[in-house]
Design brief:
alpha+beta; five-stranded mixed beta sheet
């Protein structure tokens, strides 16, 4: 079983060219997000039609690129904005997104989760 624990989840807002692979996606993480692609965080990318998704993640031996194509429907993907290039999601939000829900419109109750400081 594949597990990628410990990293944070970042969605790259807007559309990404799905022809990109390891180096191209890592370049977007470095240039657009100002983040380290080897950080073990999971970086999610979506195409313009919002029916394809790629994930870039690094582990102790290298990098992974995972992809998903929807047969029907679209992902509720955040739009690109001049101020917003990445959106951080929690695991629960990602599960909702992958199961067809618009996680941006749902709100967690304030008592549900205490935010922890991470370095």
């Amino acid at each position: 079983m594949l597990t990628f624990g410990g990293g944070r989840l970042f969605l790259v807002a807007g559309a990404t060219d799905m022809r990109k692979s390891f180096n191209g996606l890592a370049g977007i993480v470095r240039e657009k997000l100002k983040a380290d692609p080897m950080s073990r965080h999971l970086f999610f990318f979506c195409n313009r039609d919002r029916n394809r998704m790629k994930v870039l993640v690094a582990d102790e031996s290298g990098m992974w690129v995972l992809s998903k194509r929807l047969d029907r429907g679209t992902f509720a993907w955040p739009a690109a904005d001049a101020d917003v290039t990445r959106v951080e999601y929690r695991g629960e939000q990602l599960a909702l997104l992958l199961h067809g829900f618009d996680a941006e419109r749902l709100r967690a109750r304030p008592w549900k989760r205490r935010l922890l400081q991470t370095s």
